[in-house]
Structure formats: structure tokens, C-alpha cells
Amino acid sequence: MDIQYYLTFREVASCGSFTRAGERLGYAQSTVTVQIQKLEKAYGAPLFERHGRTLRLTEAGVALSRYAEQITDAYNESLAVMQSPNFGTLMVGTIETIAAFFLPAYLQRFRNDYPGIALAVYPTNEREVLSRVKQGEWDVGLILDPLLYDPELETVMLREERLVIISGDSHPFAGKDVIGIRDFEKQSMILTERTCTYRAAMEHAIADNKVKVNIVSELGSIEAIKQCVRAGLGAALLPYVTVEAEVKRGELHISRPDPEWLPPFYTQLVISRKKKPALPLRRLLELLQAGGGREQEAELAVDGTG
Fold first, then answer.
1. What burial letters (b/e) apply to 115-137, b meaning 16+ CB within 10 Å?
2. What GO annotations for molecular function exist for this entry (predicted)?
3. What residues contact 44, with CB distance under 8 A and at least 6 apart?
4. How far apart are the first and last CA of the chain?
5. Phi, psi at residue 161, to the nearest 5°?
6. Which tens digit of pLDDT belongs to each residue from 46-66?
7. Is the separation of the CB atoms in 25 and 8 below 8 Å?
8. What pLDDT does 302 receive?
9. Percent of the chain with pLDDT over 70
């Protein structure tokens, strides 16, 4: 049954006239009459009877009015919710590092502002993030890479991401401030997965300089890499944000990669240029932009660099 029939029914019951109901609803009287007739046919009973110059509800009409009120109130409420910017799903594609160590605090703040928005976060590799954002499958992507320029995407730099070489107590890198590309010669290294952008940058530098490195393992888990480094199996290149807790507890040593072989990496937000960001997405962007800078300042203060 068309929801409009119930809205018309309530209006006729309220004003006691097909003509006045039509005026309020912007319908011709004949349209109101047809809609009420369809309701009466569907329920198999007359819903109004004439009382002098006005209409009043029959016994069946009184019974239906209670349900019509619930039906139309629910419809109006659902319409308001669906048309509100506080309803829906925001789909975010990103890499594991950002999903686990950067996003959670901001997602909670966003939920406080938009409790009706469901946040779906998809950890994956950067190539898939960029592809799905371009295709409009995901609303926004968060990547870790040198500054990205893509004609199909709007890119917002959130913060420079510190990359560090982590090592255990017994590794030759322990206590070393800066690691040059030649320092990797014959050293044991644990690598992240092949799709990792900063791994690719390190591998290019090693290959370009013909450095021989002992690759102990390739792992897709940040936590597994940290455990292997603590166990003395080798050193690894990771974002500082992923090892901050262990460094503060004295469980890992960190060294700075020489900028001559490793370019700056940035956490960046990407949106399709075809997409017009709605208010919730703009709010998420504001939170990330404001918070990213503050976090980086705090990291530098704790580490005593910068």
C-alpha cells in the first residue's frame, strides 16, 4: 500500500473534509477521494461517514487511525534519518600500519560527533586502496608513501611519518645514530611484505648501490617483525609509530635512515576528484589533519629530535 494513502487518510480525519485535506496536501479533491477509496477497498470497510457537512471516522476508520499514525510516524522518522548527514557508512581503505597505530583514536572522536555513521575500515595494500578509491568503491583512502600526485585523486598530506631502523641489543646497529646504505652490507634484515612502499624504497636503494644484505625473513605482520628483532634475528625498517611503546620500554633500539637513500614518507589522505565529500567525511579529514600534526610534535619531543 502506498504510504501516501495513509498520510491522506490522517489529513482527512484531521480536517473532516476531502476538499480541505486536498488543499493542505496540494492535491485535487478527486485525488483524495481515489486514495481513500483504495484504502477502503483494501480493508474491505468504509472508513468515513458523513455527519452533516463534515466527515467523521467510522468504527473501522477509528481502528485504522491508530495503525495509520504509527505507520506514518515511522515513515517520517525514517525519512528524516535517511536524509540526515548523521546516517550511513563511511568506507575507509588503508594499510595495516595506519589502521592499527594511527586511526583508532581519530575514529573514536569521529564516532562521538557522528554516532549514526558506521565506519568500515579495510586494511590492505596501497595499490588496492588507490584503485578502489578511484572507482568510488571506498570513500577515502589513507596511504604511507612519498608525496603522491595523481590526476584522478585529491591528496591531503596529514603528516610526515618517521621511519626508523629497529634492532635488538646484540645487533651491530644498536646504539648507532644514522644508518647509511653501506651499513647494510652483509647485515641480517627482516622485511615487511612485498607490497609495502617503504620496503620497496629500501630495496631500490640496496639494489642501486649493489649492497649485499642477508634477508632472514619476510613477514606481513608488524608485531611478528618486532618479536623477531627482539629475538636477535635481524634489524628492520618500520614507522616509528609502530615501535614507540617498545622504544620507551627499552626493548628496541632505533636508528635514523640516512636521507640520502630513503626519501621522506608521508601519511596521506586520498579522495576521488569525482566525489564531493559530505559533511561527515569533511569532519574526519579535519580530525586527521589537526591530530596528525600534534602527534608528530609529541613524538619529536619524546625522542628529543627535530
1. eebebebeebbbebbbebbbeee
2. DNA-binding transcription factor activity; transcription cis-regulatory region binding
3. none
4. 68
5. -100, 120
6. 999 988 888 999 999 899 999
7. yes
8. 44
9. 92
What is the pLDDT at residue 300?
A: 43
User: What are 293's three cell numbers?
Assistant: 600534526
For cell 628492520, what's the residue?
A: 236
Cα 116 from chain centre: 14
> What average pLDDT does the segment 89-107 reach?
90
Neighbour-count burial of 74, counting CB atoms closer than 10 A to its CB (0-12 exposed, 13-18 middle, 19+ buried): exposed
Q: By the 8 A CB rule, do 267 and 292 touch?
A: yes
What is the arrangement of strands in the sheet containing 265-272, beginning at the earlier edge strand?
117-123, 88-94, 140-145, 265-272, 153-161
Confidence of residue 160 (pLDDT cuts 50, 70, 90): very high
Domains of the chain: 3-82 (1.10.10.10), 88-161+265-303 (3.40.190.10), 164-257 (3.40.190.10)
**Contact indicator for 34, 23 with CB cutoff of 8 Å:** no
Cross-strand bridge partners of residue 188: 214
- Lowest-pLDDT range of 107-116, 120-129, 167-176: 107-116
